[in-house]
From TrEMBL:
Organism: Cellulomonas gelida
Identification of the protein by name: Chorismate mutase
Pfam families per record: CM_2
One GO MF term: chorismate mutase activity
Segments of this protein annotated with the region Disordered: 1-20
Keywords: Isomerase
Length: 116
């Protein structure tokens, strides 16, 4: 069993100081839960992109795929629009994540001796 297989105890939501209005405390608790979900979703995304990076490295494919990245940006902008989220923010968020993924893929390519 690896360290990743061992379930970790949940990280409690931040504790609010006394005197905070209950509605504010409730909303902040909701935000804490959403933040936790985002972290776990990002972890799952990076597990999947690591597998992609390994496959690319094994096959000598380049770490980045500009066509795929452009399609993803367009898709995310549309999803953001549907969700009433600023598409520019959503695009910047995706660009940040993709840049990190590419950095990981470049490292994997170096490890496999298939620098692109």
């Amino acid at each position: 069993m690896t360290d990743q297989d061992v379930p970790h105890p949940p990280v409690p939501a931040t504790q609010e100081p006394a005197g905070i209005p209950p509605e504010l405390a409730r909303l902040r608790h909701s935000i804490d839960n959403i933040d936790a979900a985002l972290v776990y979703l990002l972890a799952e995304r990076f597990k999947a992109t690591k597998q992609v990076g390994v496959l690319k490295a094994q096959r000598g494919l380049p770490p980045s795929d500009p066509g795929r990245e452009e399609r993803q940006v367009n898709r995310l902008r549309e999803l953001a629009h549907q969700a009433d989220l600023d598409p520019v923010f959503a695009e910047k968020f995706l660009e940040f994540i993709v840049a990190e993924v590419i950095r990981h893929h470049e490292a994997l390519a170096q490890d496999h001796g298939t620098e692109a």
